[in-house]
């Protein structure tokens, strides 16, 4: 048992490092789609990485993952928490995090290991939110927002869903690696920023052509998807929180969904728009498959992963058409049709595609078989729980995010840069 715990810690540390790579890779993705002139993308993601480690260590990790107070918020003063724990070095080095003990997940992860892994998730989630910031939002305003994000906006939904004492977890909601906690919340938080920037631009009389910012750079785009694929190797398989056979199955389900969705996306694009294959469509397809499979990667078979990946093509195509019709939404990286829509769809599919033979070794023995595998009433109940959790979390994130932006805007006389060096003008 001790040997397996050591192996678990080693595996999850490696997975955390891979996930941290994804934060910087998102900056490469922006440059790949918007052109190398947007070097601020790299500065932004580097800042996010450093800020996440600091804020999560001080308070964010405890709020998300310490034993919760009435299932709503992790105890920020938990005596074995990250900062308070290192006051006693021997306790910090040898202490297994409370939720990794036999009473809960029984993977033997140390506090330091689990902190590093979950902080990497918090970091990449904000990086996804930041893809809609472009150069329009003041960097200082985004930095202040990031602190609030790591204290409340990301951490509270994580406490509800990923913490075994969280109220949504106890209700039965599951989200394996973050279809909602990462992708869905990033989408709705990004939408709140888009709305706030739109309101300020409208008040200032600023207009711009949202398609003018697209400047594809094939090299940067290819590099970004390579790094994101590497990162996802830690993102989904690492979420088993143990190195076992199921972690290896999750590797297969993750990459099967990604490859199938790539083919599906390019196929549907050709079918409806008669456009030949290109790097942007292939990248969007891979990302859509990865996003959809994320909340169920540890609950489904490789065959189901192929089906889910195939659904990613038409889903992204439909989402892209839908959001492009809303003129004030400037989302060139595809946060809304990709991460928001794909993540939420994936969470809802838990109730359809789950097979207990895969869920049990992933640490979720209470998940019923999905509707497509004879789950019956229990699966329908699971669907209701997942849908309820989605509505609650999205509403919470949007409200808290928008209120935070209003306060920041008030204190800084607006969150947008008025003098943009892009194709904008005052009317």
Automatic annotation (TrEMBL):
Pfam families: Ammonium_transp. Its main location: membrane. Signal peptide: none annotated. The chain crosses the membrane at residues 7-29, 41-65, 77-94, 114-134, 141-161, 176-195, 216-235, 247-272, 279-297, 335-354, 387-408. Residues 11-413 form the Ammonium transporter AmtB-like domain. Coiled coil: none annotated. One of its GO terms (cellular component) is plasma membrane. InterPro entries: Ammonium/urea_transptr, Ammonium_transpt, NH4_transpt_AmtB-like_dom. This is Ammonia permease. The keyword Manganese does not apply. It is a multi-pass membrane protein. GO terms for molecular function: ammonium channel activity. It is found in: Membrane. Keywords: Membrane, Transmembrane, Transmembrane helix. Belongs to the ammonia transporter channel (TC 1.A.11.2) family.
């Amino acid at each position: 048992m001790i040997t397996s715990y050591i192996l678990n810690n080693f595996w999850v540390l490696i997975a955390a490092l891979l996930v941290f790579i994804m934060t910087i890779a998102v900056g490469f993705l922006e440059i790949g789609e918007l052109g190398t002139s947007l070097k601020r993308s790299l500065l932004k993601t580097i800042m996010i990485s450093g800020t996440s480690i600091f804020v999560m260590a001080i308070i964010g990790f405890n709020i998300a993952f310490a034993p919760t107070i009435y299932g709503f918020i992790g105890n920020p003063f938990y005596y074995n928490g990250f900062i308070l724990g290192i006051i006693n070095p021997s306790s910090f080095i040898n202490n297994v995090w409370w939720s990794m003990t036999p009473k809960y997940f029984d993977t033997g992860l140390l506090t330091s290991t689990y902190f590093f892994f979950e902080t990497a998730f918090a970091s990449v989630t904000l990086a996804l939110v930041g893809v809609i910031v472009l150069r329009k939002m003041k960097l200082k305003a985004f930095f202040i927002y990031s602190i609030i994000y790591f204290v409340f906006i990301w951490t509270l939904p994580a406490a509800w869903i990923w913490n075994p004492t969280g109220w949504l977890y106890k209700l039965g909601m599951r989200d394996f690696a973050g279809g909602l906690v990462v992708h869905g919340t990033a989408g709705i938080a990004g939408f709140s920023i888009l709305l706030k920037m739109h309101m300020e631009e409208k008040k200032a009389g600023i207009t711009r052509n949202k398609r003018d910012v697209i400047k594809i750079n094939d090299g940067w785009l290819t590099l970004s998807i390579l790094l994101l694929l590497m990162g996802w190797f830690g993102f989904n398989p690492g979420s088993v929180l143990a190195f076992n056979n199921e972690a290896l199955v999750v590797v297969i389900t993750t990459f099967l969904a990604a490859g199938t969705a790539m083919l599906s996306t390019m196929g549907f694009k050709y079918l409806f728009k008669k456009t030949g294959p290109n790097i942007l469509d292939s990248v969007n397809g891979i990302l859509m498959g990865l996003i959809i499979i994320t909340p169920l990667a540890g609950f489904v078979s490789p065959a189901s992963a192929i089906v889910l990946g195939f659904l990613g093509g038409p889903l992204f195509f439909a989402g892209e058409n839908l959001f492009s019709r809303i003129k004030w939404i400037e989302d060139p990286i595809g946060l809304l049709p990709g991460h928001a829509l794909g993540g939420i769809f994936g969470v809802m599919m838990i109730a359809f595609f789950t097979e207990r033979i895969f869920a049990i070794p992933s640490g979720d023995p209470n998940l019923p078989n999905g509707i497509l595998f004879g789950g019956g009433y229990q699966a329908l109940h699971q669907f209701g729980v997942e849908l309820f959790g989605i509505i609650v979390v999205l509403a919470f994130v949007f409200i808290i995010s928008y209120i935070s932006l209003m306060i920041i805007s008030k204190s800084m006389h607006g969150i947008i840069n008025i003098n943009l060096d892009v194709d904008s003008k005052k009317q």
